[in-house]
Specification:
- The protein is built from four helices and eight strands, in the order E-E-H-H-E-E-E-H-E-H-E-E.
- By secondary structure, it is of the alpha+beta class.
- The protein has an eight-stranded mixed β-sheet, sandwiched between helices.
- The chain is globular, with a radius of gyration of 15 Å.
Length: about 160
């Protein structure tokens, strides 16, 4: 839990019955706001065995969500991270990512190092740099009309 102002936020791995809320928030952010086609937004990676879906809640309200893929491998991928529009700039995204990193660390064996990698939307790159992620290279690529850059961090 984290107190932000007078709001308690809770991070947790989503239960199957909470996935509907996660998909609804992703649709709100990626499809409605960013005009990503719905058929692209939900993919087979959502249902893979080593994909974990996580969320940040205030009470029953989902404020942010993301997925962690390849959780049992050396290179772990974060994806589909989004924060409800009304809660951006209030520390929710930072809270989400710090806790996702803790989730990854719980899956480490002994002194194992894991690399967290993701395709960051280019406009949000400084946010991720603030959290200790670095660009893998200077190649900007376009996915569904949005500029991205590959970023990573070793934990």
């Amino acid at each position: 839990y984290r107190l932000y102002g007078d709001v308690f936020m809770e991070y947790r791995i989503l239960k199957s019955e909470e996935m509907e809320k996660a998909f609804a928030l992703r649709e709100e952010v990626f499809v409605d706001e960013q005009k990503v086609p719905l058929e692209y937004e939900i993919d087979k990676k959502d249902s893979l065995e080593d994909t974990i879906h996580v969320g940040v809640f205030e009470g029953d309200e989902l404020l942010a969500t993301a997925r962690i893929m390849n959780i049992n491998k050396d290179i772990v991928y974060f994806g589909r991270a989004c924060v409800k529009k009304s809660r951006r700039g209030k520390g929710v995204g930072k809270f989400l990512f710090i806790n996702m990193e803790e989730t990854v660390k719980k899956f480490k064996k002994g002194n194992e190092k894991k690399t967290i990698r993701f395709s960051a939307q280019y406009h949000a790159m400084t946010f991720y740099e603030m959290l200790g992620y670095t660009k893998d290279n200077d190649d900007i690529f376009v996915e569904v009309g949005i500029e991205h850059i590959s970023m990573s961090k070793i934990v």
